[in-house]
Amino acid sequence: MSDQCIFCKIVRGEIPADIVFKDDDCVVFRDINPAAPIHLLVVPKNHVVSLQDVGPADGEWLGRMMALIPKIASDNGCDPGPQGGFRVVINSGAHGGQEVGHLHFHIMGGPRPWAGRAAPNA
Ligand code: AMP
Ligand code: ZN
C-alpha cells in the first residue's frame, strides 16, 4: 500500500469508484475517463508500480488476474466471440504512457467506432 496512491485509496475504500468486481487479488472499476463504451481497470490490491516491477515470482497472482479478464469483460457487456471481444492495455512507465503509478490492466470494449481515445495515451 502507498499512502498517496490514488488506486491504493480506491482499494482501501477511501475514495469512491464504480467497482464492478473484487477478490483477494484485485479490484476492478470503471475508468473515470473512458476511451471506449466499456472501459474497466483491473487493479491489484498490492501496490506494484508497473509491469516493470514484476518478475517470475509474481506469476501466480498476475496469472489469476489475467485469467479473470474474459469473464469480467463479458459480465460487463463485451460481446463474445470474434465479432465481439475487447482490448487489454498495460501502460508501463513514462515511455509507455503510464499516468497512474500503480499497475493496472485496461479492458476496453463495446462496438466501434469508439468515441474516446483510440487507446489510453496512444
Ligand atoms: P494509465 O495512463 O495507463 O496510467 O491510465 C490511468 C487511467 O486511470 C486513465 O485512463 C484514467 O482515466 C484512469 N483514472 C484516473 N483516476 C481515476 C479514478 N479516480 N477512477 C477511475 N479511473 C481513474
Ligand atoms: Zn497504489
Word description of this protein:
It is a single chain. It contains two helices and five strands. It is of the alpha+beta class and 122 residues long. The protein has a single domain (6-109), classed as HIT family, subunit A. The longest helix has 17 residues, at 59-75. The chain starts with 5 loop residues before the first helix and ends in a 13-residue tail after the last strand. The chain binds adenosine monophosphate and zinc ion. Adenosine monophosphate (AMP) is lined by residues 6, 17, 29, 31-33, 41, 91, 97-100, 120-121. The site of zinc ion has 6 residues, from helix 1.
CATH homologous superfamily heading: HIT-like
Summed over residues and divided by their number, the pLDDT gives a mean of: 94
Tell me the distance between the termini. 29 Å
Low-pLDDT runs: none
The CATH architecture can be named as 2-Layer Sandwich
The top-level CATH class is Alpha Beta
The number of strands is 5
Q: Count the DSSP helices.
A: 2
Offer a few descriptive terms.
single chain; 2 helices; alpha+beta; HIT family, subunit A; 20% helix; binds zinc ion; five-stranded antiparallel sheet; 5 strands; binds adenosine monophosphate; 122 residues
SSE arrangement:
Elements (H helix, E strand, L loop, with lengths): L5 H7 L6 E4 L3 E5 L7 E7 L14 H17 L10 E4 L15 E5 L13
Antiparallel strand pairs: 1-2, 2-3, 3-5, 4-5
Bound molecules: adenosine monophosphate and zinc ion.
